[in-house]
Design brief:
The mean pLDDT is 93. The protein is built from three helices and two strands; from the N terminus they run βαβαα. It has one domain. By secondary structure, it is mainly α.
C-alpha cells in the first residue's frame, strides 16, 4: 500500500512488487502521502478491511 502523493511512491516500484508477488495486494491510496493512516484514515481502514476480507475468503485467516 502506497500513498499516491508520497515521495516514496513510484509507479515502477508498484509494478515491480506486482511482478515479484502477483498474488499479493499492491495498490495506492489517493490523497495520501507517506503516513497513509493519518492522511486518509477512512481509505486506509477500508483498504485494510478489504485485504483482510479477501484473505479470510481464501482461508488464510482461519
Amino acid at each position: 500500500m502506497f500513498g499516491l502523493e508520497s515521495k516514496d511512491y513510484e509507479p515502477e516500484k508498484l509494478d515491480f512488487l506486482r511482478r515479484l508477488a502477483p498474488e499479493k495486494p499492491a495498490f495506492t491510496i489517493p490523497g495520501a502521502q507517506h503516513h497513509i493512516m493519518l492522511d486518509q484514515p477512512q481509505a486506509f481502514a477500508t483498504a485494510v478491511g478489504a485485504v483482510m476480507a479477501q484473505w479470510y475468503a481464501e482461508g488464510a485467516l482461519g
